[in-house]
Fold these 4 entries.
Entry 1:
Amino acid sequence: MKDNGLKEFQLQVSDLLLRHRSLLDVSSKFQESNARVNRALMKAVTECGCIQVKARRQPFKKGTALSAMKRELETHVTGNLCDHCSDVIQSEMGKNLFYLTALCNTLGLELEHVVNNEAKKLSTLGVFNLR
C-alpha cells in the first residue's frame, strides 16, 4: 500500500464485502472478530504457553511524575509470542480491522478520518487523555 493505504484498504473492503453488508451483520461480525482476537490471545497463554500473564495491582503512587509512572506500570505479559501464535493473532486482528472498516463503510465514514481525528485528540489532550 502507498501513502494513502487506509483509503485503499477501505476501498478494498468495500469491494470484497458481499454477504454481510447490513449494519446488523457488520456490527455483529465486528463483535465476533473482537472475541476471536481475545480467544487467540488466551490460547497463546493457556494452550501454547509462549506468553504468560502475571498480573497484580498496578502501583499508582500519588505525586509520581508521569515519566516515572510509565516506567513503573507493567503489561503483565512475560515471554514472547511464538511464530504460530503471532501469525494467528495478527490474522484475527486483520479480520477485526476488516470489519471495523466495513462498519465505517456502512455508516459512510472514512477510516482515515477516524484515525486522524483520534490522533489529533490524543496530541491535543496529551496526558489529559490517558487511558
Note: The longest helix spans residues 23-48.
Entry 2:
Amino acid sequence: MVYDDAPLRLGQFNKLEVIKELDFGLYLDGYDGEEILIPRVYVPEGTQIGQFLDVFVYRDSEDRLIATTLKPYAVVGEFAYLKVKDVSKLGVFLDWGLMKDLFVPFGEQHSKMASGRSYLVYIYIDEQTERIVASAKLDKFLETDVTNLNEGQEVDLLPYEYTDLGIKALIDKRYMGIIYKSEVFKSVPLGEFTKGFIKKIRTDGKIDLSVVKQGFDRIDNLKSQIYSLLIASNGFLPYTDKTDAEVIYKDLQMSKKDFKKAIGGLYRDGKVNLQMDGIYKSK
C-alpha cells in the first residue's frame, strides 16, 4: 500500500502517528488537527507515542472517525463479494470484516438482497453523508473501455452470480463478463478468484469468458488429458462420436465439440484406434 502525508483517506489504510495515550486507547494524528481514536483492543502491544501505525480509518455508528488494525475484506474503491448480515427498511448490512457492518442503501440494491446470501458490491464514499457505503448496482462503477483487452488474454476472474446463461464474473477488478454454460467444465464457486481467458469481445463491448485457454494449445492439453486417462484405463475408453454430450461433459469435463477435436488429433497422431464401442490405445 502507498501512503502520503495528507490528506486523510477515509475507508483506506493510513500511516498515522501516535500522539496521545489514554486508558481506553490511543489517539492518532489524522492531519489538519484531527485526532483519531484507535481503541485499546486494536493497539499492537508495546506501541509508544511517536510511533506510526498502519490503520484502517472509518466512521463508527455515531459518525466519529475511528482507526483499527483489523483488515476489512475490501476498501473504498474496490469490489468485494460480501455476505448480508442483516436487513432493514432502509437497506442491508454486509459483513466486511469489521465491528461495524457495511451499509447498502435500499436504492443501491440491484435486486432485493436477502439475509445470509452473498453479493458483489462496490465500496465508495457517499458524497452527501460522507459515509462509507456499498452498491450492488455495478454498471456505474465498471469500466466500459475494453480497448486494453484482447481475445485470448489471461485474466483474473471473480465469479459472482449464476444466471440462466452461465456465470457473471468480474474481470481484473474492472470489467464484467460472462462464462457461458458451454464453457464451464468444472466447479466454479462464487466469490473465489480464479484464472480465466477472454474468449470473445463483442462489438457492443460485452465480454465472453472461458475458464480454459482457447486455441490449438488448449486442444493439445485435452489430447494429453484423454491419452493419460486412456493409459490409466488399460487402453480403452467407452466413448464414441455417438456418446451423449452430457456424458462427455460429466465424465471428461469438456464439450463434445472439443472431445471430437482432441480424439481426431490423437487419431491423426497414430496414438488411438477408433472402434464402434470406444477408443483403443494404438499398439
Note: The chain has a mean pLDDT of 90.
Entry 3:
Amino acid sequence: MAHSQVESIRCLLIPVVEHNLLLPAGVVAEVVDYQEPDPLPDHLADQEWLLGFAGWRDQKVPLISMEAVMTGERAAPSIRARIIVLKGLGQRSQLPYFGMLTRELPRLTTLSEPTVERLDEFAPQPGIHCQVLAGGEPALLPDLEEIESQMHTVLFG
C-alpha cells in the first residue's frame, strides 16, 4: 500500500519592518555581515529602495531595502543587520545576484504545504505577493521577480 509523503521545503524567515519575509532557502546564495554599501551614481539617488552596491565574492551586487520597497522609507541598519545575497530569478546576465538588507540574522525553518496558509484579508503592498501563515506565524511573500525586474530597469535601462 503506497502512502503519500508530504514534501517539505527549507525556508528563511527574514525580519523587516514589523513583519517577517518568507523565502525558500533555494533562492538564497549566502547571508553575510552588513557592510556599508558603495553609493549609487547621482542619477539614481532618488531610488530610496536601492541602497547602493555591496561587495560579495569579488563582485558588486545591488543592495535593496525591503522596508523602502514596502513603505517608501529607509530604515537605518541595526547593529545586528545582515545582507542576504539572493540568486537572480529572471535569467538576466547583468543581475545574477542582488542583496537584501535585513535587521538581524534570518531564522531557518522547514515548512510543508499543510503548514502554510494564504491569508485573504491582505492589503496589497508594493513588492509583496501575498501574506501567509507559515507554521502559525504571519509572514509576507516578496514578489522577487517584480523587484528584480524594477531593479534591472533602473540599473540597466
Note: The helical segments are 66-71, 144-156.
Entry 4:
Amino acid sequence: MLDGSTEDSADNSAEDSTDEIAIATDVAPTRPPHTVLRWVAVGVLAIAAGIATYVLAVRTVTGQTIENAALRGADQAGRAMTVQADSVLGTITITSMVIAMLALLVFAVIRRRSWVGLAALVIIVAGQVVTQILKSYVLSRPELIDAYPQYLQNSLPSGHTTAAMTILFGVLLVTPFRLRALVALVVMPWAIGVGAYTITAKWHRFSDTLAADAVALAIACLVCVIGVRLGYLRITPADSPGRPIGQRAVVVFWSVLFVVATAAGAGLWVVTWLAGSIDAAAEYRYFLGALVGSAAGSIATALIFWWTLQRVTIGDGPVARDDAGS
C-alpha cells in the first residue's frame, strides 16, 4: 500500500509538472531570439553610416566639390521633373504628418496594438527632433571650396527624407506580417521619391538624404529595442498563417531597382570624376548620379528595416501580461 501510494503520488506530480509547463508555454509565447539583436546591429551600423556620410561628403574637398556640382546640375532639370518634385514634396507638411500619425494610431488601436501605434508615433516625432537638432546645432559645413553663398549653409540631414522614411517604418511596424509586402509596394515609391526630389528641387544634397536615411533607421531600431526591453512591445512569431502575400516578388523588384540605381549612380559619378573638368554636362551627370543614388539609399534603408521584422509580429507587451493573468 505504501509503495503504491508513493508511485501514484509521483505520477500525479509528474502530470502536474507537465501541465504547468504546457500552461507556461501557452501563456508566454517564445520570442524569436534574433530580432532584438538585428535591431541593435542595424542601429549601430546606421549610426556609423551617418557619421561616415557626413565626414566624406561635408568635411572633404572632394565631397563638397561633387555635391555642389550636382546642385548646379539640378538647374538643368526639365520643368516636368521640377513640377513633379514640388508635387511630391508638397505632400509633407505639418498637417499631413499629423494626419498620418493619427491614421497609424487608429489602425493600431483597431488591431488592439495601441503601444505599437505609439511606438510608430515616437519614431516619426523623434526623427524630426533629432534631424533638426543635428542640422541646426550640432553639424556644421566648413568652407573648403569656393561656392555660392546659398551653398554654404549646412543642410544635413534632410528633414523631408527623415519624415518620409519614419512614416514608412511606422507603417511597416503596425502592418500585419502577411500584408507588409503589399504595403511596402504602395508606400515605398512615395518615401523613396521624397528623398530624390529634394535634390531635384535643390533643397538638399545627396549626402543629406543618406544621412536622413541613417537617422530614421537608427531611431526606428532604438525605439523598438527600448519598447521591447521596457515590456511595452512584444515580439512573437508571425500571427498570420501561410506565406506573406507577394513578399518574394516585391523584395526581388526593389532589390533589382537598388542594384540598378546603385550601379547607375556610381557609374555616372566615377566616369565624370575621371573626366576631370567640371562643365555643364559634368554637373548634370553629377546631378543624375545623386538622384538615382538617393533612391538607392532609401531603397536599401527600407529593405533593411523590413528585414528586421521578418517572420515576426510586433504586439503590445502590457496586453500580453494582462492576458496571462486572466
Note: The first strand starts at residue 233 and ends at 237.
